Amino acid sequence: MATATSISISFPAARPSCHAHQRRQQTTTRAAATVTDQQQQGVVSPKRRLPLRKVPGDYGPPLLGALRDRAEFFYGPGGRDGFFTSRVRAHRSTVLRLNMPPGPFIARDPRVIALLDAASFPVLFDADLVDKTDLFTGTFMPSTDLTGGHRVLSFVDPSEPSHAPLKSLLFHLLAHRKQHVVPTFREVYGDLFGVMENELARAGKADFGQYNDAAAFGFLCKALLGRDPEEDAALGADGPKLVMKWVVFQLGPLLRLGLPRLLEDTLLHSFRLPPALVKKDYDRLAAFFRDAARPVIDEGERLGVARDEALHNIVFAMCFNSFGGMKILFPSIVKWLGRAGAKAHGRLATEVRNAVRAHGGEVTMRALAEMPLVKSAVYEALRIEPPVPMQYGRAKRDMVVESHDYGYEVRKGELLFGYQPMATKDPRVFNRAEEYVPDRFLGEDGERLLRHVVWSNGPETAAPTLRDKQCAGKDFVVLIARLLVAEIFLRYDSFDVQVGNSALGSSVTITSLKKATF
Ligand code: HEM
Predict the structure, then answer these.
(1) Binding site for heme, residues?
(2) Max alpha carbon distance in the chain (Å)?
(3) Among 76, 266, 466, 490, which is disulfide-ready with 72 (CB 3.0 to 4.6 Å)?
(4) CA-to-CA separations, 306 to 47, 149, 163, 299, 498, in angstroms, rounded
């Protein structure tokens, strides 16, 4: 699956993950000498026999290099994408060394080898080649005080004994009420569009994100746990707000909230926000799930997961993975579809309505299976704007990582980092890679491209297992994304949007909804 191969060519002594700059320089120099020697001898990568190349780029002086890269990543011209594309241009290489934020004083070591093309990226999915321990958020890990004192599954490597039982528990969470998913989605998102129509009539526009937050949280709790959070006296309608504050305490070091730069860089990117400040909010969320998710926690006990550990894993899966994912993905889908225009809307509406009519007017799994354009339009949104854009893995051994053109030597212990949008918008794999093409994945040729859609930390053609780190919610996410598209085109012939930025994903305002006429 991955294009990396472990190698037997002898390397200089493996680089320990030390932080002494001098030692680093010595090792890098020695590595450079080795590669030069190999190039002279015509050494090629073991798998595809590509010429070997030393990984270009440098980390700069300690501290200053990391601060320079952080400033460019957050505040440089061209933003985050510009940060990576300018390096690719400068080094004429899609595999290169750079520092990833946050750096000082949050992350111990910001140095990574960045993988910025579709060929090298998949090494991150290979559990034999990379270790994913504590790398879910990158070069730093949020305090476990934010998750009830537990290292939750997203931070656990498949080689750890707790990985399989925890992942089994989350598979169970997603599957045990599966007959409720479609009807609950239709009920909750039907109400959302009703409210948005009223708002549009009243104010001439309606913010999708605001309504989506409440709908996503309500849908998840009702569908997966059978409980309406707003009916819980202690939680009420506060769920989404509490979750977002708690997420900022975890992801703050990677976010731009739009505060004045000095304040933001100091407050958010240089020091950790104290978990004690969000403890009360988190305890309110945990109290709700302790009761609402009791049957799932019981199942955890059967699987050998202690009740408290099961609870905090369920809170994380429901609030961070699922709600956080829907908060980014749904506005993204509405944005790309909105921009796709009336002709694409007409094709989607025709497909959705024909399939639903053929199934007695109901949205069923079989009706959804007969909506290939909807399916393709969802994959295309996940390709062009992967909701979780950054993945990490630590090399388990010396290996050669292959891009399209070169093999790059990577040493055991080095941190590999993939910026997914550059893998899924790689022009060597996708035509018109920067364009949203709703029917891109139709037909045999389209389907062949699906292995390059990797939003779930694995190819779209693979399924998550207990032995890998592919997203446990992969099928669920694709299902609810299709349900969203189907709901929109059952109700409307077409719609218009205005788009802006927000800390997590896009901010989307609906400016018109044209009711279904056929
Ligand atoms: C749009 C929605 C979602 C996106 C974009 C997404 C994306 C991802 C990604 C990229 C990873 C791998 C992270 C890494 O290790 O580098 C991941 C892992 C994971 N996701 Fe999702 N996810 C989504 C929804 C969900 C949902 C609904 C669940 C529900 C249970 C979930 C549960 C998990 C879990 C448990 C892992 C860790 C898997 C493991 O340790 O083997 N995710 N997800």
Answers:
(1) 471
(2) 73
(3) 76
(4) 44, 13, 13, 10, 47
Helix-helix angle 474-491:342-357, to 10 degrees: 100
How are beta strands 52-53 and 407-410 bridged, if at all? parallel
Phi, psi of 3, rounded to the nearest 5 degrees? -95, 10
* Count of H-run helices and E-run strands, the chain: 18, 12
Q: Residue with the nearest Cα to atom 4 of ligand 1?
A: 325
Q: For residues 245 and 271, is the Cβ–Cβ distance under 8 A?
A: no
Radius of gyration of the chain (CA): 23
457 Cα: distance to centroid of ligand 1 (angstroms): 8
Task: With beta carbons less than 8 A apart as the criterion, state whether 54 and 410 touch.
Answer: no
Binned at pLDDT 50, 70 and 90, residue 503 comes out as confident
Q: At 326, list the tokens.
A: 């829907």
**Residue entry with tokens 């060394």:** 97
pTM for this prediction: 0.93
- Phi/psi for 419 (5° steps) reads -95, 100
For 396-445, the DSSP string reads: SS-EEEE-SS-EEEE-TTPEEEEEHHHHHT-TTT-TTTTS--TTTT-HHH
- What's the CA gap between 45 and 8, in Å, rounded? 11
**Cβ atoms of residues 116 and 423 within 8 Å:** yes
Q: How far is the CA of 320 from the centre of ligand 1 (A)?
A: 9
Ligand 1 lined by 329 (C-beta under 6 Å): yes
Q: Which range among 38-47, 97-106, 322-331 shows the weakest confidence by mean pLDDT? A: 38-47
Work out the average pLDDT over 78-89: 97
Tokens of 105: 């004083």
- Whether the CB of 471 sits within 6 Å of ligand 1: yes
Is the distance from the beta carbon of residue 316 to the nearest atom of ligand 1 less than 6 Å?
A: no
Q: What is the pLDDT confidence band of residue 501, given thresholds at 50, 70 and 90? A: confident
Q: Does the pLDDT value for residue 203 go beyond 60?
A: yes
The closest residue, in CA terms, to atom 41 on ligand 1 is 469
8 phi and psi angles, rounded to 5 deg: -110, 0
Ligand 1 mean position to 456 CA, how many Å? 6
CA 389 from chain centre, in angstroms, equals 5
131, 289, 471, 478: which to mutate for ligand 1, most atoms within 8 A of CB? 471
Q: Which two tokens stand for residue 158?
A: 């498949």
Determine the angle formed by the axes of helices 163-175 and 307-315, rounding to 10 degrees: 60
Q: How far apart are CA 409 and CA 28, in angstroms?
A: 11
Regarding the beta carbon of 162 and ligand 1, being less than 6 Å apart is answered: no
Sign of CA dihedral 232, 234, 238, 241: negative
Backbone angles phi, psi at 128, to 5 degrees: -75, -25
Q: Candidates 321, 328, 474: which one to mutate for ligand 1, based on the most atoms within 8 Å of Cβ?
A: 321
The percent of residues in the chain predicted with pLDDT above 90, rounded, is 90
CA distances from 265 to 111, 486, 504 (A): 19, 41, 17
